Amino acid sequence: MDKYEFRTIGLSGLLLAVFFFAILYNSYGRKINMPTCIPADRTFQRTEVKKIDDHLYEFDIVARMWSYGLYEFVIPPGSTVDFYLTSSDVVHGFEINEKGVNMMAIPGVVNKITATFENPGVYPIVCNEFCGVGHQNMTGRIVVKQD
Ligand code: CUA
């Protein structure tokens, strides 16, 4: 084998190993909650907010042109939310900047991420994938307040 071929293969392998350990380090070392891809056995047709207990919520979100089905999601401070996200048409984004939440809404796929909202406030949700002429209007918000 040519020595440059050998080096290229070696460097590519090294790079893959670095990416792999970066994922492990971020998930376990830094406890960053990585988005998860759920098998298609957990399906839902429309956006729904489910209260599991006083501080645990489950949001099933179906993104479509150009909304998330609900504009405002209201929860009390200290709530943990499991976000399950899918799309009924094209690929959309789902980003909550302040919480480091950034997922893609993909038709036929459910993505999941968990976030905890300790402090009262308004957390904007934006679509960060270009999804058509109404893309810039595709927003929502999470309102954290005592009710
Ligand atoms: Cu949905 Cu951009």
Summarize the structure.
With 147 residues, the protein is an alpha+beta fold. The protein has one helix at 3-29, and strands at 36-38, 48-53, 56-63, 72-75, 79-87, 92-96, 101-105, 110-117, 121-126, 139-144. The termini are far apart.
The small-molecule ligands in this entry are: dinuclear copper ion
Describe the largest sheet.
Answer: 5 strands, mixed
Helix/strand order, N-terminal first? HEEEEEEEEEE
Q: What structural class do you assign from the helix and strand content?
A: alpha+beta
The whole-number mean of residue pLDDT values reads 90
Binned strand content: 35-45%
Q: Give the radius of gyration.
A: 19 Å
The best one-word shape is globular
Q: Tell me the span between the first and last alpha carbons.
A: 69 Å
In what order do the strands lie side by side in the largest sheet?
1-8-5-3-2
Instruction: Give the proportion of residues in helices.
Output: 10-25%
Number of strands: 10
How many helical stretches? 1
Low-confidence stretches: none
